[in-house]
Amino acid sequence: MKKMIFSIAAVACLMCAGTYSFANEMSNMANEMKGEMKAGTDSMKGEMKGKSDAMKAKTDSMKSPKDEMENEMRMKKNDMKGEMKTKKDEMKGAMGY
Questions:
Q1: Rounded to a whole number, what is the distance in angstroms from the first to the last CA of the chain?
Q2: Mean per-residue pLDDT over the chain, rounded
Q3: Phi/psi at 96 (nearest 5 deg)?
Q4: Among residues 55, 59, 36, 35, which one has the least CA distance to residue 47?
Q5: What is the model's pTM?
Q6: Is the pLDDT of residue 97 over 70?
Q7: How many helices (H) and strands (E) are present in the chain, helices listed first?
Q8: Cα 1 to chain center, whole Å?
Q9: C-alpha to C-alpha distances, 58 to 47, 48, 50, 62, 85, nearest whole angstrom
Q10: What is the CA radius of gyration of the chain?
């Protein structure tokens, strides 16, 4: 009887030790996976920031031709206004106003 109780106790102790070892191994694996996921997330953030910066640079490069065109249009408009004012003044002078 004592041998049986002793063997049951020994088996229970071995199972507990095995369970602890298994749980410890699973915990270590979970920590490794967290580290890998964090590294992956950080690298993805870096890639996204790089793409965002590239898009901003492209947008900025597209703005300069647009600004040049707007400046040309503004200058032409001002020239036309000046010409219209000159013609208007000439007509007033011709009419005697």
A1: 135
A2: 84
A3: 90, 25
A4: 55
A5: 0.40
A6: no
A7: 1, 0
A8: 71
A9: 17, 15, 12, 6, 41
A10: 41
Rounded to whole angstroms, the Cα distance separating 88 from 67 reads 31
**Residue 96 DSSP one-character state:** T
> For residue 37, what are its two tokens?
């996921």
- Alpha-carbon distance 82 to 97, whole Å? 19
What is the phi-psi region of residue 96: left when phi exceeds 0, alpha when psi lies from -120 to 50, beta otherwise? left
What distances in angstroms separate CA 19 from CA 15, 25, 39, 41, 97, one per listed residue? 6, 10, 30, 33, 109
Q: Find the helix or strand (DSSP H, E) in which 70 lies.
A: helix 2-95
